[in-house]
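Hello Y.,

Per our agreement to keep a running log of every chain we model this quarter, I'm adding this entry. I've kept the format consistent with earlier entries: sequence first, then predicted structure.
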Amino acid sequence: MEEWDVWHSQQHMRDVVKQPGISKASKFRIASSGGESAEYWTIYELESLGAFEKYDKSQAAKELRDDHQARFGHATKLERFVLLKTFDTTGTRRSDSGRGSE
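Predicted structure for the entry above:
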């Protein structure tokens, strides 16, 4: 998996972040994998739900997913989730519109 990790960090994640509406990518490794294969979580931060929806339907997203599948689909398991921030560390609660509320 070292080959995947280097490729994913140095190429794939950087290519994803170059897409419109994507502002940040972070990758985490689960510390307690029990000695079996490592589990990684990649979190991409987008400007809005609309930015995600646009990216998700784009040709670039299809090409990036196809490239990942062709290179490492035999060795990786993918799960995708869309998370909406409801609270941040500043204590501001976000409403569905993304504006803070009191």
